[in-house]
Amino acid sequence: MTDPTGRHFLVFARRVQTDPLEQIGVVKAETEALAYVYARMNYTERPWRDLCVVPRDAVFALAQDPE
Questions:
Q1: Is 2 contained in some domain?
Q2: What is the CATH number of the domain that holds 47?
Q3: Domain tally for the chain?
Q4: Digit-coded pLDDT (tens) for 9-19
Q5: Quick check: pTM over 0.85?
Q6: Which long-range contacts (CB under 8 A, 24 or more apart) does 34-41 make?
Q7: For 27-43, what is each residue's pLDDT tens digit?
């Protein structure tokens, strides 16, 4: 079921080029452009070199650990 009020986007960032991208949060937005704006507004505690937003439904696990 699709949420009509927006989609969830994972926010990834890194401070310098040699750092790996790390997930720093999640934003909810109607479009990818708005998700990027929300991420820029909410995650300003550091000067990020790269800031990326990815639709949560575009990410999937390759393998799951047995419980």
A1: no
A2: 3.10.20
A3: 1
A4: 999 999 999 99
A5: no
A6: 35/7, 35/9, 39/9, 39/11
A7: 999 999 999 999 999 99
